[in-house]
Fold:
Amino acid sequence: MPWVIAIMVALTVIAAAAGLALRNAASATTAELRGGVTVQIVEASPEKRTKQAQAVVRRLGRMPEVESVRLVPQDELDGLIEPWLGGKAGHDDDDYESADEAAIPVPALIDARITGEVTDARLAAIQAALRGEAPAARVDAQSRWLKPVLDAIESLQWLAIALVALLALALAAAVLLAVRSALGANRDTIEIVHLLGATDRQVARVFQRTTGIDAAGGGLLGMVLALVVLLFLARRFASLGAGMVDYGALDWLDWITLGFVPLVAIMLAMLTARLTVLRTLRKML
Structure:
């Protein structure tokens, strides 16, 4: 039984850590994108694109609900699109006027932050306010870009919760089968102990204590195994350098929560053993 409990605890800690990491990533990403608005200037001419982008920045800066506004530098845009388009994006006047057909005009990008929640009505109002300054402007909420990703993360969180619940049931079932097997193997001894005056509760306390010791050893071993796996995965994900992955790092409260998993497993095993013994003895004797 200790080995079974070790495996169950290790899998439970890993599943719980995954759920907590997904929660942290979703919460941090949502907070980061709250109030975020992106304005794209979709214009092929570099001169017109630059002029409209500057006009939009000035117009947004005068709007009272806008907390901050920033024109994304061209070098930063180049870095964002280079993995997909390579060096085929043209942005300055020389590229536009050249005969290089491989050059692809990239919209100017403006990052703005407004107070409160970004709604469709507020986006429409901003779009209408910018229409005179930049007819080619497109206004979008930053949270819309990652909504499918956030929905998928929420589904994975529920999956992690379901796995933790199933592993808890599996642990309880393993303890139940082990205790029943021990009761059957020691039936004659238990009958003799009863004849000597022992009560069902005293017998159950013996099994409960033994199960607790086995569960403590298995829980400790499972926690160590889970920590090795989590630290290995943390180093692998840290090398990715992705923003959302960094948001998923576990904080000290998460580690404390994971530390309670072996303790809960021990209590669950002891409770299952006690209830199993008491119920079986009532039918046996």
Q: What stands out?
A: Residues 91-102 have pLDDT under 50 and may be disordered. The two ends are 26 Å apart (CA to CA). Strands lie at 36-41, 66-71, 89-90, 104-105, 108-114, 137-141. The chain is about 75% helix and 10% strand.
